[in-house]
Write the structure tokens for this entry.
Amino acid sequence: MRDLNIALIGGGFMGKAHSLAYAAMPMYFWPAPARPVRKVIVDVSEDLARTAADRYGWERHATSWQDVVADPSVDVVDIATPNHLHADIAIAAAEAGKHVICEKPLAPTAADAQRMLEAVQKAGVVHAVAFNYRRTPAVALAKKYVEEGAIGEVLNFRGTYLQDWSADLDSPLSWRFQKAIAGSGAVGDIGSHVVDLARYLVGEVDEVSSLVSRFIHDRPLQSSGFDSLGASRGSDGPRGAVDVDDESITMLRFCDGAVGSIEATRNAWGRNNYITFEIHGTEGTIFFNYERRDELQVAFKADPADRRGFRTVYTGPGTPYGESLWPIPALGIGYSETKIIEAYEIFKAIAEGGSVRPDFADGYQTALVDEAILASGRTGAWTAVDQVEREGR
């Protein structure tokens, strides 16, 4: 089995998730396509980097991503930093001949995403953007139903991503609330996940019409270097400006004629990680709620009238990825498993000399949808979405 040495840039929340996925992937998918070696982890200070290496099981730590990217022993560069650093790291990694994994959104702007795509295409390396929710087995099962025609021609997609971790106006000023670092707010941070699901399940978005709002205009400044998510520290002390959106409502027209809507908000008290989609077709309906991620709700027109309605399909050994996860249906799929599956798909592509989706072209296309949503929010008009030309299409 081939070893692949990984450099992980960023040791925070996502660094934890990625480290766990690399450690566990061969335990789930055996024989593994390749063995992930946690070679070096990078963070902004010596103390944070050393702590991350000790906690997450990395061989060594560093504070310079530039030195790590240039290291000839590194095969894969995994980018789990704030958004404004993605482009520089990914382009340098591609130019150094490294395979590249990047957290979402791919970049703060579509222009940066395009530069990243061009760099990995020129280098001929495997590239992936971490929209891991499409790796949820129930989501992959929904994709299977759509492709098989089980619900007929798709007419409508309704998606949501509702959260409350930052609904408290006294939660700290994370980098996610600053345009210079994040690029956008709810649109890019959480809405992009639903855009990816819509594209994955239905197809490309042709145009959008949006309402984009900001309800919280300032937050308490953070005092530590570690990004605090969702913690309230009270209203005393200095505050900094929030200059990104925290809510968006968007109508969609898909290229194939389907219609839909997406709602993304950080202000939904009582909603923790409420990612949902409902797809209506000429022959049935599919409904998914990530907070009940072992389940897919389906209803089919062909059912007898006295049995028509939603039924629950539980994911397990007979559904996508099920043979490598847990042996009993509905035993429990968590966030970690989506990252483990993601790691498997990426390392399989690298080991076999293939490609993986979602890739940087997907990340760029999603960024174009996000920018159209923001533009429509400013003008109030329907806004066309530019389409990415994929290699080989």
